[in-house]
Amino acid sequence: xxxxxxxxxxxxxxxxxxxxxxxxxxxxxxxxxxxxxxxxxxxxxxxxxxxxxxxxxxxxxxxxxxxxxxxxxxxxxxxxxxxxxxxxxxxxxxxxxxxxxxxxxxxxxxxxxxxxxxxxxxxxxxxxxxxxxxxxxxxxxxxxxxxxxxxxxxxxxxxxxxxxxxxxxxxxxxxxxxxxxxxxxxxxxxxxxxxxxxxxxxxxxxxxxxxxxxxxxxxxxxxxxxxxxxxxxxxxxxxxxxxxxxxxxxxxxxxxxxxxxxxxxxxxxxxxxxxxxxxxxxxxxxxxxxxxxxxxxxxxxxxxxxxxxxxxxxxxxxxxxxxxxxxxxxxxxxxxxxxxxxxxxxxxxxxxxxxxxxxxxxxxxxxxxxxxxxxxxxxxxxxxxxxxxxxxxxxxxxxxxxxx
Length: 404
Hints:
Blueprint: E1 4-11, E2 20-28, E3 31-37, H1 43-46, E4 49-52, E5 57-60, E6 62-67, H2 79-97, E7 99-104, H3 111-120, E8 129-131, E9 136-139, E10 150-153, H4 155-168, E11 174-177, H5 197-209, E12 214-218, H6 221-229, E13 234-237, H7 243-252, E14 255-257, H8 261-264, H9 273-282, H10 286-309, H11 322-335, H12 340-346, H13 349-354, E15 372-375, E16 389-394, E17 397-401
Parallel strand pairs: 1-4, 1-5, 6-7, 7-8, 9-10, 9-11, 11-12, 12-13, 13-14
Antiparallel strand pairs: 1-2, 2-3, 5-15, 15-16, 16-17
Helix pairs in contact: 2-11, 4-5, 6-7, 11-12
């Protein structure tokens, strides 16, 4: 792979909340070879490609660590169509929003595993890095059965069989839905927990036995505390928590992925033009809007408590499409009290660490893989400046070029 040199950039390395003006980044064999101040000519008398970024802001590629394929699906939709739509969504997220890595939170038919392998193959197909989980696992009559991503399990051996099935088909982690949610029928409520003690304990025990990280959907204090106590790698949502939950996060180091978009993107709460456009396009049913609005303030409160307490947090949206989702969630983080630096860290360095990829990705420093984006204005001044996307690189290759 030819050497690539990016000059005249304002560097945000996501190691510290500072901008390094006039930086030059050199990429060799898909990795960052050097980060220096000033211009550095390519070796060999000018060989390789040099791109003058003309003062653009260069930073790590964005992550979204809670995504799903499309849902709900029109009647008659085939698995082939769903898989194609998911791939298109992933590729547009990379090219149009600079989302270079994602962690799936449930996908029917192991389509996340399929796209992970497609993007890793030497064919050159441009898509984000995918951390796959296959189906999310819930009980009969459990959470979000209409999505097409759920697998219903009952009893310890039902969960054991399902977990082994996900492992056999190439999952990177196991998603367990311990409770209900906002987006579901009348019996699927976020204040209710679903698993019996023997079911949840057996599921966690097998995941630990097989060294599989658990991504725990937990939406009420009891479910959150059970997930932390049993060794979840991350807790998703946490719409309602208590002080014991916060203590548990801090003592265990369990990650928290708040997914603010689920409770905050409603007609009454949408403020920015991007939020209003999303809400209009999504057109949630009135009952689901009422449920989201009713949960929003409590969710906001515990997000702020966790943030202020220093709970390890990463950014995941749980909404579609990927070309909008991470950007919407970043805006909601700042709207609800995070600084742009906290939000950006959650979508880069922290997200990579959550996925076990911190040594390779998430910051811009020598030796790391060259997943980078360039934007026209400073996102540390206004997080919405991430929307001014100019350039996307994955493994040092240009995946999208939006420069004039």
